[in-house]
Amino acid sequence: MSRFADYNIKNITPYVPGEQPKVQRYIKLNTNENPYPPSPDSIAAAMSETHKYNLYPDPECSELTQKLAEEFSVGFENILIGNGSDELLAFIFQGFCEGGVAFPDITYGFYKVYSELYNRTPEIIPLKEDFSIDCNDYLRLDKTIVIANPNAPTGMVLQLDEIEKILQCNDNNLIVIDEAYVDFGAVSSICLVEKYDNLIVVGTFSKSRSLAGARVGYAVSNRDIIDDLKKIKFSFNPYSLNRATLAAASASISDRIYFEECISKIISTREKFKLNLDKMGYLQTDSKANFVFIKHPYLSGKDVFERLKKGGILVRHFEKERIVDYLRITIGNDEDMEFVTKALSKLVVK
Ligand SMILES: *Cc1c(COP(=O)(O)O)cnc(C)c1O
After folding, report:
1. Which of 86, 133, 200, 210 most suits a substitution to test ligand 1, by most atoms within 8 Å of the C-beta?
2. 166-195: per-residue pLDDT in tens?
3. What global pTM score does this model have?
4. Would you give the DSSP letter of residue 76?
5. Please, are residues 136 and 109 in contact by the beta-carbon 8 Å criterion?
6. Pairing relation of β-strands 199-204 and 217-220?
7. Cβ of 212 below 6 Å from ligand 1
8. Ligand 1 neighbourhood includes 204 CB (under 6 angstroms)
């Protein structure tokens, strides 16, 4: 640390992204990327924007906003586009959490990081023993509540009626539902935005739409909240989405067939893989995301992580006490998961 940095920066522990190996020696299943490339239409649309790079992109992201408004059956004024959903989550921690913020002990690591960055006091709520979220733990907390649904890294889902209960019992507080993985098997809360004025739903093109490298996310809420978020965006960087990204994302929404094909392939690969994990004796949560969360019957998480890595497979291990023996494995294509299944089966022979 330099002698010039502010005190506030001194105590921040930044987010640690999954390793991005420089050489493609690994089957890379550690960052929940989509194994399938973006829609060919997205690639073509992005390419055709580059000759306009001398011009700023549309700060309103009008075309993409309109497409998403139609997709989600909400108004244009109910959506804000961000440079990844991370940017929008950061705006929320920056602008809506002065009364504190609550989230589960086991969840997306960025919530804690943003709490520190923006000096928010987090109330960390333990998941139940089986890693489920009990909605009754989130009633009348009197602070902003952030929940990933499906949760990460468990993949477990909260039902809409449970989310409604949280919304109803916290009517003076904001509820943020992070739907990064919703397309892989959960029901979106976007349908509740009209009914509850204390709800923001955040989503991303990084996982289900194969655009992690393009950086695009969205927030859906009522007009007032979206206007507040816009104020933050336009006080920071109105041009955070580049032309190619905007074009790629719009084309992705239009190419519904490709999107649905990729999703159904990933879901069917996941279900096959989950069955095999059961057969081999691994413990796992009931994941509805594009990853599984597993535990070996007797080896430590670190041990399994190292052995898989030696075998050319990169997965995610968290140095966090409660889940230190678990691994998060992204669902790749069928071939990837057959390879992983073989490697995992070698670790359970008696
Ligand atoms: C991947 C992920 C995000 C961030 O997505 P980006 O749009 O790539 O910034 C947000 N929340 C959760 C739970 C995620 O897993």
Report:
1. 86
2. 999 999 999 999 999 999 999 999 999 999
3. 0.97
4. G
5. no
6. antiparallel
7. yes
8. yes
